[in-house]
Predict the structure.
Amino acid sequence: MKAKALTSSTEYAGSRSNKGTVEKRQHERYPTALKGEAVFHSRISHIEVVDMSKSGARLRILDKEHDLPGVGEIIDLSLVWPMSKDSRPLHVESIVVRSNEHEFAVAFGHTRKQSELH
């Protein structure tokens, strides 16, 4: 069964959204139930992936005492895939492209093996 894309972001780059603004996303976003960790500010923060696309994700920090990363910061994501036979998380270097008081969005860089991290 194919997941349904979020209605508000099914437009492609350069087209107009229903709010009259130019849509910058190039890929559809899909809601997820992924959890993981993000490394930034020399700390590990527990995260929830709100939605994701082929090129990025919207994330929420679960540790309320942690600050959010700023736009332009490079962070390391470690995502846990539920119901996977392989228990190793996916590691993705990402850049923060948007941040507000509750959530932040990242563009994916490249994936790396566990041995290449820190």
